[in-house]
Amino acid sequence: MEYLTSTNGLILFLIGLVHLIYLFFSGSKSFMRFIDAIAIVFGTALWQYPEKIHAIIKVILHTSNQ
After folding, report:
1. Hey, how many other C-beta atoms are within 10 angstroms of the C-beta on 12?
2. At how many degrees (to 10) do helices 6-26 and 32-48 cross?
3. Which of 3, 23, 27, 37 has the most CB within a 10 Å radius?
4. What's residue 7's pLDDT?
5. Domain ranges for the chain
6. Which residues contact 1 (CB under 8 A, 6 or more apart)?
7. What is the DSSP code (8-state) at residue 27?
């Protein structure tokens, strides 16, 4: 979990946003637009609310291990 920091969330957000803008202007209709949207949403959430995201991930991991 130590790699899920607020700074990494900001980086993920920016990379997703730049890639989405690139895909938009290149005329691409690829599936990567959907992946970029997920990266932007997750990056924004991690950037703004890292503690809540850590708690959600811990719950998901805990329930999947049972």
Report:
1. 20
2. 150
3. 23
4. 84
5. 6-64
6. 54, 57, 58
7. T
